[in-house]
Amino acid sequence: MTSRNDKSISVVWFKRDMRLQDHHAINAAWESGAPVLPVYLFEPSMMIDPHYNERHWRFVWQSLLDMEQQLKPLNASLHVSYDDALPFFKRLHQHYHFITLYSYEEVGLSCTFERDKQLKAWCNSVGVEWKEFPYAGVIRGLTHRKQWLSNWRKQMRSAPLNTPIHKMSWVTNKSLVTRVPSDISAKLHQPDEHMQIGGESQAHQTLISFLDNRHYHYHKHISSPLKSFNSCSRLSPYLAWGNLSVKQVYQAISASQTPLPRSLQAFVSRLHWHCHFIQKFESECEQEFRPVNAAYQHFPYRNDEKAMQQFNAWCEGNTGIPMVDACMRSVIKTGYLNFRMRAMLVSFLTHYLLIDWRKGALHLAQQFLDFEPGIHYPQFQMQAGVTGTNTLRVYNPVKQAQDNDPNGEFIRKWVPEIAHLDIEDLFAPWQIPPLTQLTLDSPLPPRYVNPVAIPEDIIPPHRDLLWKWRERDDVRKEARRVLYRHSNPG
Length: 490
Ligand SMILES: Cc1cc2nc3c(=O)[nH]c(=O)nc-3n(C[C@H](O)[C@H](O)[C@H](O)COP(=O)(O)OP(=O)(O)OC[C@H]3O[C@@H](n4cnc5c(N)ncnc54)[C@H](O)[C@@H]3O)c2cc1C
Prior knowledge:
The chain is α/β, with parallel strands linked by helices. 52% of the residues lie in helices and 7% in strands. A five-stranded parallel beta sheet has the order 3-2-1-4-5, with helices on both faces.
């Protein structure tokens, strides 16, 4: 074993906060005056968690490369290790006399929560202080929302941190690094041309391009699965993985124009939702496993063999409903889908097919490059209608296609096997009369003749069940508790 180095160091542990600017943990480490060891851990136990998929770790990898580029001229480098947190920090502690660990509070899944509890216990037992900084106005241990919004606004308007990283002294010793196995690193190093690229530089470029020109039609195009690719900000993965702080975005928008045009006002309210939803999850993280409204715990979802076949068809984008399939195939390939179409996929799964939202939440977490547990779970539950507090929104995929893809471009792009259909047949091909089908240029694939569910047919019995359940006394009682706990007064 290596001998212990008596010099004190400060350790900054990066997690979902992969940037060097406006970073509370870096700033506090700089203020400590001790040399700083910046650490990122590819944790094997996280990498096998079913919420994640290669696309997430590639985005992290790219973010690390970007940070390395920035640190290189400062003769500094990141300490990237393939290790679980507890064994890594134990080893580090044997080698270095570090007494303070700096990081952000992670509003994460149960696996990170459990890890953090164990790490905290170890820190306490060996006298390491672990200083954690709250995430973007999200408050740990909050029991009500009385001052939450005013506090959030205050935070967003406060001066961003401008840490002089060029003046910091860094620990560069790499002797403790457990390298990422080459088969994994080779895959992560390989870019995926269909996905957004991670990193602080890309994040700032995306923000600038949104502010300079892409925002003009934000409000008008937000529900279009095709146009949102360009007109929405596309900042979600950069916020989810912390390449940008919410404050940096808020302040860049506020400084861009006065008064803010309608499009940017709409955008700022979404930044607020970002933190509002994460606060919900922070306050009740059991939402990963159970509905926030406990009276939905035993809602009779379908679980038979047919339901599971339909679930698989939904996951693969092979339901036979063109808009559902186009959305699913698009998100599988690109990692992105706009809000309305995410909501429609959830509604189709939970209202039309009556399949448990938990199954779908896991599948889409793997697909969304911006997977952020704190937004994903509360949003999923809201769209599935298991909060008891919001009105039940049932999205008919045929109507969504007519409204938001009126020329069928999005469907034709992602479901090429029906691209030859005329626009009047494209959204509901099962309605084409059998004789007309014979006259088509190429035959209709069977799944589009017999889809897993025909929106108009299947909904009444399911809708009755969904609405009746909503009226139950226990659902209403729980809804009052949920509102008190998770809503901002007024
Ligand atoms: C079922 C479901 C699951 C979702 N899961 C996630 C997720 O894992 N991660 C995630 O970032 N967003 C999630 N969203 C919210 C939303 O769909 C995405 O944030 C948005 O589509 C990202 O695109 P954008 O950055 O171009 O958004 P923009 O419209 O440009 O919005 C800017 C930012 O505001 C935040 N935001 C926007 N809409 C919402 C919203 N409805 N609720 C909370 N925050 C919002 C995001 O951080 C986004 O980057 C989910 C929505 C649904 C219906």
